[in-house]
Amino acid sequence: MLLDKPLAVQVVALTGATGFIGTTLRKRLVESGLTVRALSRREEGVHEGIEWIKGSLENAGSLERLVEEADAVIHLAGAVRGSSLDQFNRINVDGSVRLMEAVRRVGASHRFLLMSSLAARHPELSWYAASKREAEQAVQKRAGDLSVTVFRPTAVYGPGDKEMRPLFEWLLRGWLLTLGEQTARLSFIHVEDLVRAVVAWVSAPQVHSATYELCDGCPGNYDWQGIAEIAKKIRHGSVRQVTVPAALLQGIAQVNLSFSCLTRRAPMLTPAKVGELRHPNWSCSNTAVEQALGWHPNILLERALEERYF
């Protein structure tokens, strides 16, 4: 997305630049003519038009170097896997607080974007959701007069995603694993649309402190049957729905959590995550963010599946 007018922001400080969303975003920011400074545990120097600052969310010095002279800060880095609430909080909450404190000490930035999650709407459902909500509150509390925008995207998918891609591949083979009630409301957003929303935020002449939900804009969002119908249309064949019982899902999650203690690898599916996965209403509306930023999503789930754009 190339911009044909001067930007309100010229220098962007970015965390999470090597992750799923960040990999796409950093490229689009550079294409938009911005100077991008990104935090990395490994990279250093200038590569691909990006100035890499070696460091981490635990290192106050590297965070100050990251945000120095930056007009805007975009905070993507965070944990989506973990075996305890404390593990999520150390990254999602404490890391966000350290970054905001660095911004306030340096004092150059005039806008801050926190990438949260729609899960933060229901912090009681999972460790991840609770940590995201607390991170939002912690950053807003410490912001002072700095404008803080919170994006709460729904389930994000697209090239580079490792979590949802296998589910979509099975769906197009004719198998749909359903979690929770058949009437559950679901929503999705393609990574390119989410990144376009971030670029719209960067290019906006003025932004205000606000929290926005983001999805692909499908009227009424989705349900399991609707997703099956989309797949039937694309593959010109039947789709079998296999409902995973709650007890089985909980059992798998418990085994997964126990196994992670042996391997010391952060798990995705845990007993705490099950409540989030089985929640009956992940519907979402773009009304507020569209009015604020003039952004509109372009990629519905049907198009992404049909074009294998995931």
Automatic annotation (TrEMBL):
<dbReference type="InterPro" id="IPR050177">
    <property type="entry name" value="Lipid_A_modif_metabolic_enz"/>
</dbReference>
<dbReference type="Pfam" id="PF01370">
    <property type="entry name" value="Epimerase"/>
</dbReference>
<dbReference type="InterPro" id="IPR001509">
    <property type="entry name" value="Epimerase_deHydtase"/>
</dbReference>
<protein>
    <submittedName>
        <fullName>Short-chain dehydrogenase</fullName>
    </submittedName>
</protein>
<dbReference type="InterPro" id="IPR036291">
    <property type="entry name" value="NAD(P)-bd_dom_sf"/>
</dbReference>
<feature type="domain" description="NAD-dependent epimerase/dehydratase">
    <location>
        <begin position="13"/>
        <end position="206"/>
    </location>
</feature>
